[in-house]
Sequence to fold (594 residues):
Amino acid sequence: MANIGFIGLGNMGGPMAANLIKAGHSVSVFDLSKAAVATLVTAGATAAQSAKEAVTGAQFVISMLPAGAHVEGLYLSGDDPLFDHLAEDALVIDSSTIDAKTAQKVAAVAAQRDINFIDAPVSGGVGGAVAGTLSFMVGASEQQFANAKPILDVMGKNIFHAGVQGSGQIAKACNNMLLAILMTGTSEALNMGVKNGLDPKVLSEIMRLSSGGNWALELYNPFPGVMPNAPASNDYQGGFQTDLMFKDLGLAMELSQLSASPTPMGSQARALFNMHKVKGNGGLDFSSVIQQYQDQD
Amino acid sequence: MANIGFIGLGNMGGPMAANLIKAGHSVSVFDLSKAAVATLVTAGATAAQSAKEAVTGAQFVISMLPAGAHVEGLYLSGDDPLFDHLAEDALVIDSSTIDAKTAQKVAAVAAQRDINFIDAPVSGGVGGAVAGTLSFMVGASEQQFANAKPILDVMGKNIFHAGVQGSGQIAKACNNMLLAILMTGTSEALNMGVKNGLDPKVLSEIMRLSSGGNWALELYNPFPGVMPNAPASNDYQGGFQTDLMFKDLGLAMELSQLSASPTPMGSQARALFNMHKVKGNGGLDFSSVIQQYQDQD
Fold:
């Protein structure tokens, strides 16, 4: 069992830390929200008074923060950068979803200083974080990946080694851009078929079993009533918020811009999620984007 | 065993008719190409001198033609329209991929005249036609569908009842528009990841098993070398031509226009296939659209 410092106890980080505790690890936690810390203490964590205290003596440091600026500030450029306070041979796992450029920048500094820093963003949402079934996309050396895997296995089901540092963020940006394309495309095809008289369940099943088959038709149909357990059949509550998809598409656009990778489809999908967001739907599950296609009564 | 009249013996119609002969049916064939007729005669068909002769006395009439104008001309408005020459209780199965409006128009005339006319476009390509593993998307009444199914089963594997007349064409237009979106989106995500240093096989596998999963990643990866049996690994030979995808996207755009169904993603995908076609790639498999994203050496 390991000593783990965990920083960032939001909707995702909280349950991830709780699963590490359940597995028997010693977890020292820090968050700016005292309520979030208190919840984890009840679950068996040790409360740290600062990020520095949380990582002192830790073999593994895990962070789950909103954006690149927070990660860079925490490790490199803040008042008391954590890279000055890590135990020797500590492995730092940043599970935040941030821009690849910042992940690569922090990793480059770490490499200069002989610090093990890897990026390991997740997918699977709050439900996956609670159930310990997240997917991790990891940018790390072979050795670092092997060292991180037993810890990631506690919090996730599919642990992918995407490549060197930064590759986890790149893989996630690519995947989520493709997800945005699949969801808008599936919404568009379903809406056109239904508007022309087809039954949404019948058309969904035809396309699922044909060359239009994709994750949305398998598990996350955007049309209300087709899948009883999908957010679409629950007024688009829960699931993966439009705001978060819009954030991820911003990261994909940044990656596209920096590498001059053409993204005509991802850009169009982003425009649709943007329109959906400005109409007040940022808090709804992202599959509600189908509403942009539908006739208003 | 049935008497079948088969009209249109192209790359698809030829092997479909051959499978009916193999199954023991009596098939009378007609095509403007004498060579195509001769090939089927060798396989056991009877050569008809006209479409009218091919359908005389037939219990089933199957047509496989390039576009709506040919179907309308054959049955309704040509020199000797077939609707004047069908046997009583004949079932007409049009497997051409045509615009839904024409399919509905021909079906409406058929209904007025008590003729059984159903639309049953296919997917699965020439390989599926030869192997008898096509998918059929059928627009028909329950009774007509039940009557057609034993015949369609000889030529296909998945026989879907999409709804009333015209629904087969609508379902296919929706599915193939979604396929165009999946293929361009998958190409785009793969290209961006690889351009940023990821291995195409690793990224393909991560997305296949994550929320980016779709038919292209399962069976038809557009990146050369990822799947040995995909057209991408064979210089984009064989498979489903860019020209045919462009045709199908035109049918989808027509359906969108007539029903005011928004298609921002399908329209963008169509633009990409159009650009790919004007650069001389109409004869390549459609997954070669990934070349539009790739840096030229």
Notes: Residues 91 and 211 of chain B are 43 Å apart (CA to CA). The first helix of chain B runs from residue 13 to 22. The longest strand of chain B covers residues 156-163.
